[in-house]
Amino acid sequence: MADLQKLTIGKALNLGLRRAMEEDPKVLIMGEDVGKLGGVFRITDGLQKDFGEQRVLDTPLAESGIIGTAVGLAVRGFRPVCEIQFEGFIFPGFDQISSQVAKLHYRTQGKIKMPIVIRVPFGGGIGAVEHHSESPESLFAHIPGLKVVSVSNAVDAYWGIQQAIKSDDPILFFEPKKLYHSGAMKSEVDVEATPDELFKSRVVREGTTATVVAYGPSVKVALDAATAAEDEGKSLEVIDLRTLSPLDLAPVFESVRKTGRLIALSEAPSESSLTSEIAARVQQECFYSLEAPVLRVTGFDTPYPPAKLEEHYLPDLDRVLHTVDRSLAW
Predict the structure, then answer these.
(1) What is the percentage of the chain residues whose pLDDT exceeds 90?
(2) Would strands 4-7 and 187-190 be described as parallel, antiparallel, or unpaired?
(3) Backbone angles phi, psi at 286, to 5 degrees
(4) Is the dihedral of CA 59, 64, 65, 70 positive or negative?
(5) What interhelical angle do 154-166 and 9-23 show, nearest 10?
């Protein structure tokens, strides 16, 4: 019998972390304010109280130190879960991530594994100051040796964080911070189900007019646009990538061969991005099926703006619908 719980993304992550810690004493959580405070977004709330300071560690404000310590722990058989408080603070740890975390398994010919999960709240929409609303996921997807995941709903949050922790590969786990506690994004989670494979894309809404592919916080925008388009007689198929490296584009190819059109949606800047890769791969694999060029709806190629301007920066329902109309006009 299903054990259903209606959860927000934030609560699902909290319960997923708790279950992983219960099942494996080698799982440790570490980061700035993750213990007594429970994290600035309260994702680790209550975990230090229940598992102790030896397993939920409040660290200094030093991302390089957090990641470097996790490397040492992983070498010794632990499964550290690091929280980067805001995505814009990850760059002091970029050297450790790209030079050590991503390379040690390869460098040692498989003798050393790096079962490290780096949790990264990312994206805009919370009215924050500079360095608190970035979308750096493309940088990490470009680094061989890393896997990059981005969840968009409570089911994937609950199961995905557990699957990432159990993986022997290092995983960057990007979480849409503006959706952490959104009541609109609550969903029923069967905590005893068999989860989908973590590294597979999923069609989350079927359609025939055009395909919209998105990930993380942009999936909600795509679904809202599909609902609005239905009133105009347009049927949008929405695909949630779920994992950004490795990219599972087979469902996208299949969808584009059916609809003939693709809109790639992301909050990140457009140049040298995941939407660029998707556009290139789809046009390579589905050229004779396309009725229009692949179009993209993204953030702009500028630093993230002040909070008063972010509603103009972030892709929204109207920009998606306008791009669908452009595609249909070809």
Answers:
(1) 95
(2) antiparallel
(3) -125, 25
(4) positive
(5) 30
- Looking up tokens 């646009």, which residue turns up? 225
Task: Please provide residue 131's backbone torsions phi and psi, each rounded to the nearest 5 degrees.
Answer: 75, 10
Instruction: Assign 3-class secondary structure to the chain.
Output: CCCEEEECHHHHHHHHHHHHHHHCCCEEEEECCCCCCCCCCCCCCCHHHHHCCCCEEECCCCHHHHHHHHHHHHHCCCEEEEECCCHHHCHHHHHHHHHHHCCHHHHCCCCCCCCCEEEEEECCCCCCCCCCCCCCHHHHHCCCCCEEEECCCHHHHHHHHHHHHHCCCCEEEEEEHHHCCCHHHCEEEECCCCCCCCCCCEEEECCCCEEEEECCCHHHHHHHHHHHHHCCCCCEEEEECCEEECCCCHHHHHHHHHHCCEEEEEEEECCCCHHHHHHHHHHHHCHHHCCCCCEEEEECCCCCCCHHHHHHHCCCHHHHHHHHHHHHCC
Domain boundaries defined on the chain: 4-190, 202-329
Identical fold for domains 4-190 and 202-329, yes or no, is yes
What integer is the mean pLDDT of 144-162? Answer: 97
Q: What is the pLDDT averaged over residues 178-183? A: 92
Active site residue 142: no
Given the residues 131, 132, 181, 312, select the one marked as catalytic. 132
Q: Considering only the top CATH level, what class is 202-329?
A: alpha beta
Q: What CATH number is given for 4-190 in this structure? A: 3.40.50.970
pLDDT band of residue 234 (cuts 50, 70, 90) is: very high
